[in-house]
Amino acid sequence: PLAARPPGRVRARPAAGRRAFTRGRLGGTMAEEAKRLAACAAVDKHVQNNQVLGIGSGSTIVHAVHRLAERVKEENLTIVCIPTSFQARQLILQNGLTLSDLDRHPELDVAIDGADEVDSHLNLIKGGGGCLTQEKIVAGYAKCFIVIADYRALTKNFGGAVELRMAVSKAGPVVTDNGNFILDWKFDRVHEWSEVNAAIKMIPGVVETGLFINMAEVVYFGMEDGSVSVREKQPH
Question: Which enzyme class, named as a word (predicted)?
């Protein structure tokens, strides 16, 4: 699959006298605390009893699954979880949640996932964790696709080169859960992303892209000041 990623992350400048890596109340960095706040807000708002949920992948989803497990235990909720990756599957099992798959539960009420980048129209760039194909499949089966991120995902800057993603702890390229390679395309400018997505998918051999176009209904951003900013899809 083709995973589109920016060349870097936008770092919000810390206020005077504040360290860039301020500790949150759970002992993590400011960004991790922001992710936790956004995840909790999204789970509390959108998860109800007797739902089938799609569980995304990545660091933000860890906080969402922890909050989901808390609510299941505290409120005695009946929830079925569909994973998008091996990591998501392990998170579901480790937190004592009910695991299933799309064969048994092809209709999902809500899918919750993170994003590498989010634009003003809620188009997403995903694929940093290499699970973009399964993430897009699961999101496509959901009635509502919810995204959680921290303030660093709010950006409009893209770089301009394509490279094969190489592994860190082994020789050779990264291989995804589906057995595919990943090309990271760093864009040099903002494009019409629906056209880019369609054009890339027409290339022979491409399985999927990390562009999630017109899929997210709402995005929860955990902010530096401890608040949660909510951005909803606007009607065209």
Answer: isomerase
Q: Is 17 exposed, middle or buried (0-12, 13-18, 19+ CB in 10 A)?
A: exposed
Instruction: Report the CATH number at residue 125.
Output: 3.40.50.1360
What's the token pair of residue 138?
């699961």
The one catalytic residue in 32, 33, 135, 208 is: 135
Burial zone of 159 (CB within 10 Å; 0-12 exposed, 13-18 middle, 19+ buried): middle
The answer to whether the beta carbons of residues 216 and 4 sit under 8 Å apart is no
**Tally of domains in the chain:** 1
pTM: predicted TM-score of the whole model, two decimal places: 0.68
**How far apart, in whole angstroms, are the C-alpha atoms of residue 20 and residue 13?**
7
pLDDT of residue 160: 63
Cα distance between residue 69 and residue 50, in whole Å: 14
pLDDT exceeds cutoff 60 at 156: no
Strands (E), 114-176: 117-118, 124-125, 142-150, 161-164
117 is catalytic: no
Residue 36 lies in a domain: yes
Tell me which residue range forms the domain holding 50.
Answer: 27-152+208-225
